[in-house]
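Dock FE2/S2 (inorganic) cluster; give full complex structure.
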Amino acid sequence: MKVTIDGIEIDVPKGTTILQAARMIGHEVAPPTMCYYSKLKTSGGYCRTCLVKVTQGSAANPNPMPKPVASCRTEVMEGMVVQNVTSPDILEARKGVVEFLLLNHPLDCPVCDQAGECDLQDLSYGHGTEKSRLEFKKREYEVIDIGNKIKLHMNRCIHCYRCVKVAEQLTDGRVHGMMHRGDASEITTYIENVIENDFSGNVIDVCPVGALTDKTFRFKQRVWFTKPVDAHRDCKKCKGNVRLWYKGEDILRVTGRKDEWGEVEDFICNECRFDKKKTSDWVIEGPTKVNRHSVISQNHYTHLNELKVQIMKQQKALGFMKIDKRP
Ligand code: SF4
Ligand code: FES
């Protein structure tokens, strides 16, 4: 099926969503996402971050769709024409979505463990406005432990449902979910249950904000001062492919490896995540190559050469002289 997104045409199989088609083209046209997660079935459709304008429904019916659609839940049609970054209306509408997502979200980035790898932080820099118009008090919850390894900071939750999908699809006997409706909705365990199963730690990795954090890592270090390294081990419960986060010689935390869209490639078990914090537990593959625009990529020597090449290209384009050739 042929679909055109921001003026770029691509051929995709039937059943592809607009978001998937946009991701096939690349980052320049792919809408941001806060609830969709390609590895979790039925995710998406909650946050409206990924909305786009369909200016032509299909070749057979060239009428535009009457309002913006969630690209993660809308399948492409033959001859569909879509606008994302080329539509000023969509950019304006997305600012509104960001404002709603931030409505109850505390601005505690300086003390939040997710800072530096928070999707909402990136989203608000890229698509938000600098001011909030909220005049009322934000909702507040107690920070609670759900199990001995996971902390729930409900104030920061944006109701994306990713953790619920993880619990539904990766574990037996789900004990947590969303309670209540609308503004009062909250992620919670059913009457103080703890989340204890082999894959429960994955809720930490999928949470786009700092609502679910790793108690073994909390407040130990800002993430941009750590060094991510890819490693694996022979594990009976999961594939054992992980990312180790070093500070000096110490492994401060273990997470799943994330791809260029910020999604975990393989979900990992709690044994790999919480119990294997010695270098001797792992076969080290080498420093992680961070492709995403992120503070995590700062100061990592694997990028130094790329950076040098970019600077030299820019200097050439601007007509800079080499220092040793200056009069
Ligand atoms: S706790 Fe995190 S993953 Fe779960 S719904 Fe809230 S924001 Fe999403
Ligand atoms: S990513 Fe599509 S609605 Fe949230």
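Observed: The longest strand covers residues 241-247.
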